[in-house]
Design goal:
The protein is α+β, with helices and mostly antiparallel strands and 137 residues long. The chain has one domain (24-135): OB fold (Dihydrolipoamide Acetyltransferase, E2P) (Beta Barrel). The chain has five helices and six strands, in the order H-H-H-E-E-E-H-E-E-E-H.
Length: 137
């Protein structure tokens, strides 16, 4: 009788703690659909990736190679580019540090890729794993 009572508890515990239950699930959509759904899309090259002070997000600086959608012509100019008298467009994007929280790891993979992002309520660009995966497969 005791074994019958333990089995449902173990099953419920496995569902609560299961890593797959915590993982980010992404629907596969076409590249065109991913571009249409994202507020900002551009081809870029990763310049720098840093962890934020709370250790929850990666702050990614990218050089914009080609604007596809939603990138303002007035983007930040890097100081060293100004010193060389050559304007260089760069954009900062935030992503979750964990893949389980739908973050994209900009440290791994190609350093030049298509970036898709949404703007949060403060106007910060936020890239998610689902958008990035559909743009770069």
């Amino acid at each position: 009788m005791m074994a019958r009572a333990i089995i449902p508890l173990v099953t419920i515990g496995a569902l609560v703690v299961s890593p797959s239950a915590l993982a980010c699930k992404c629907a596969l959509v076409s590249r065109d659909e991913a571009i249409a759904a994202a507020a900002v899309v551009f081809d870029g090259e990763v310049l720098r990736v840093e962890r934020d002070g709370e250790d929850k997000n990666d702050v990614v600086t990218l050089r914009v190679a080609r604007a596809i959608k939603g990138v303002s012509p007035r983007v930040a100019y890097r100081l060293d580019a100004a010193l060389r008298r050559r304007a260089e467009k760069s954009v900062t994007v935030i992503t979750r540090a964990s893949a389980a929280a739908c973050g994209w790891d900009f440290r791994q993979g190609p350093q030049r890729l298509t970036v898709g992002a949404e703007r949060d309520k403060l106007g910060t660009l936020v890239a998610t794993r689902c958008t990035m995966m559909n743009l770069n497969r």
